[in-house]
Write a structure and sequence with these properties.
alpha+beta; Arc Repressor Mutant, subunit A; three-stranded antiparallel beta sheet
Length: 232
């Protein structure tokens, strides 16, 4: 008898193409109605409802009721991390249209991943913070986390990100997250979320309506170059 958790249950839930579309669409942390998710997957509302019920029952989604409407979101960050990690080892998508090509280009450049920034922008931020000595690799080669240096704490404070008093939290501060489009690490965890929040607050980044894609404003391009030497 296998004493390990039965991962085949989760694998079978994700394996359906329509359910995979739902999960990927919710990676930006939004809650979406069943009708919008059905449209994205190209299935009927009844089919979408059946799929969504299975994902809720399997613990991958949660449902929120507002009046007569139901809104679905990922059950937590660990689900987003699972989907993003699977994407990093999956074969590349076969582009079949100009619209799909443009969408892939935008997502590969910059996108949200349940609160933090991914894509070329997320990679550039991670590499710049390591280069400047604000982050460093853990001495434990098996560690999935970055270490925030004393120099880094000072810089983050000056940039509007306060980390003091949060080292005791159970939640990881700076986790390595393998990027599915770039196949390199960007930053997730609390620091990743705070970086995304701060750049949006400064109007250096803006999320495209109805999409996970993020654009960098002209002020953002200038600011990122001035503070971190990032050229976009």
């Amino acid at each position: 008898m296998n004493a390990y958790p039965n991962i085949t249950v989760i694998a079978s839930l994700i394996a359906d193409p329509s359910r995979a579309v739902f999960l990927e669409a919710l990676l930006d942390g939004r809650a979406l109605p069943a009708g919008e998710l059905a449209f994205m997957a190209g299935v009927t509302p009844q089919t979408a409802s059946n799929h969504l019920a299975k994902l809720v029952e399997g613990g991958l989604l949660v449902v929120e009721r507002q009046g007569r409407h139901r809104y679905y979101r990922l059950a937590g960050k660990e689900i987003a991390f699972l989907i993003e990690t699977m994407g990093s080892i999956a074969p590349p998508v076969q582009v079949r249209s100009l619209k799909q090509s443009n969408q892939l280009q935008h997502l590969s450049f910059a996108r949200t991943c349940y609160g933090h920034l991914a894509g070329k922008l997320g990679i550039a931020l991670c590499e710049a913070l390591l280069r400047e000595g604000y982050l460093e690799e853990s001495e434990d080669e098996q560690s999935k986390d970055y270490q925030i240096t004393a120099k880094g704490v000072q810089w983050f404070n000056s940039f509007g990100i306060t980390l003091e008093g949060k080292t005791g939290l159970r939640r990881t501060l700076a986790r390595k997250c393998l990027d599915w489009s770039e196949r390199r690490h960007h930053i997730s965890g609390l620091l990743g979320d705070e970086l995304g929040r701060r750049l949006s607050e400064l109007d250096w980044t803006r999320q495209k309506p109805g999409s996970r894609a993020v654009e960098v404003t002209e002020a953002g391009k200038k600011g990122l170059y001035e503070v971190l030497g990032i050229s976009l």
